[in-house]
């Protein structure tokens, strides 16, 4: 059996990317505010830099 490879934990200032759910719900008008709130929390609370991939809201 192979050993599990674990990535380093995220640190303040790390760059992360958002991607779309398979059904693209984050782009729907009714869910857009939840996406924005989550992105804001990642930036303000955890100090992460968030970029949106081209399909994040599709």
What structural class is derived from the secondary structure elements?
Answer: alpha+beta
Radius of gyration: 14 Å
Residue runs with pLDDT of under 50 for 5 or more positions: none
Strand content is 5-15%
Range of helix content: 25-40%
Please count the helical segments: 1
In round numbers, the mean pLDDT is 88
For the secondary structure, the number of strands is: 2
Order of helices and strands: EHE
Cross-sheet strand order for the largest sheet: 1-2
Largest sheet: 2 strands, parallel
General form = flat
Distance between the termini: 39 Å
Structure in words:
The protein is of the alpha+beta class and 58 residues long. The protein has a domain at 22-52. Helix content is 28%, strand content 14%. It contains one helix and two strands; from the N terminus they run E-H-E. The protein has one helix at residues 29-44; strands at 15-18, 49-52. A two-stranded parallel ribbon has the order 1-2. Strand 1, helix 1 and strand 2 (49-52) form a beta-alpha-beta unit. The relative contact order is 0.29.
